[in-house]
Amino acid sequence: MKLIYQGKTKDVYQLEDGNYLLKFKDDMTGENGVFDPGANTVGLTVEGAGKAGLKLTKMFFEKLRDEGIPTHYIDCNIEEATMKVKPATLFGNGLEVICRFRAVGSFIRRYGMYAKEGQPLDSFVEVTLKDDARQDPPISEDALHMLGILTREEYKILKDLTIKISNIIKDELAKKGIELYDIKLEFGRIGEDKHIALIDEISGGNMRAYKDGKYIEPLELEKLLVN
Amino acid sequence: MKLIYQGKTKDVYQLEDGNYLLKFKDDMTGENGVFDPGANTVGLTVEGAGKAGLKLTKMFFEKLRDEGIPTHYIDCNIEEATMKVKPATLFGNGLEVICRFRAVGSFIRRYGMYAKEGQPLDSFVEVTLKDDARQDPPISEDALHMLGILTREEYKILKDLTIKISNIIKDELAKKGIELYDIKLEFGRIGEDKHIALIDEISGGNMRAYKDGKYIEPLELEKLLVN
Predict the structure, then answer these.
(1) What pLDDT does residue B76 have?
(2) What predicted TM-score, i.e. pTM, was given to this entire model?
(3) Where does the SAICAR synthetase/ADE2 N-terminal domain start and stop, copy by copy (chains A, B) (predicted)?
(4) Contact list, B114 vs chain A (CB under 8 Å)
(5) Is B224 strand, coil or helix?
(6) Chain A residue closest to B92 (CA)?
(7) Residues A190, A154: one domain?
(8) Are residues A70 and A124 in the same domain?
(9) Can you tell me the ipTM of this complex?
(10) Cα–Cα distance for residue pair A18/B161, rounded to 1 Å
């Protein structure tokens, strides 16, 4: 097993069977000790954060498997905070696909002239480039297509899958009286047919969730959802 | 005649016949005395800049009229640096529609991971909100539609008109050996049928033009094109 990539919150190992092992770390994105799902830096380290993130990821990826949604998930080992996944190729150097149910965060920073903080949005999808140096810029379908990052057919699948997956997660949270405001997903191409599948993780670090109008921190969310 | 709006480079007067008069000023956008077509501040004042901008605008709007493209243009008075236009309503508080033939400026600042400075782009269209406080953020068709700024049908017309108009201007410049890299247009709804028409101006301040690989300043461009 060979370490091939060290990420902000996960390390990636290549396995001898051709699959990969993701090791969830206790580092969380943010700044100066404050968690921020959109941040490009590690802001804090919390013991047990990796394991908690993996528990939630396992729950959601197994739920998606039951619903017939393609993902890279094979299985996981909670004790070791590792998840075994299929190999995937990224779109370009990676995209983040955001689905919004309420207007908060970067949406308001960009479109605050036309939207009120917290106003409902109907599964609104937008794509940003993973590019720390350029602050993850938003990118249109036309630009994605023109720059050869994905085809128009792939964009349509990506958008449809994003809406489907985000609504499944929203419904799961709603069962515990929690409201999903927005969520950030990553996709890749998997297998010989290069079908589009959800990759990376789905944990508190990928979403903004609220209960009774109050924001829930990722670790708190994981406690509320996994028991 | 009543002054109703003072812009960075133009003032707007309402006429008694229901039309409007645009007075072109000698102020140009930029910072610290350096012209920048994308800037949100007045950076310099050059005697004759208003008149030169109007001459080019007149030339292009009359060319577009000959080609059957809808615009707000009625006529103009070069001596007084004024242009008479039809009343138009904006999309939201105003959009800028950019057509790119080569990758420069904000395109490279956002998508430099995937594009090289100066690489050819095939009439690539993008839309930004006119919102100085939020640095004119780019916005997708989905967001424009969702926020009620324009309909999907209007977006299609806007995009098609932008490609058509930009290529007419590109061809005009090419006749003098000048290459158009990008151009910024504004549109509004005109008349009882609310048809989409080009508004504002088309001058050196709206575009980046190059000759023999060298950038041409707006006033120089106006000299080269209007004789």
Answers:
(1) 97
(2) 0.92
(3) 4-215
(4) 92, 129, 147-149
(5) helix
(6) A114
(7) yes
(8) no
(9) 0.89
(10) 51
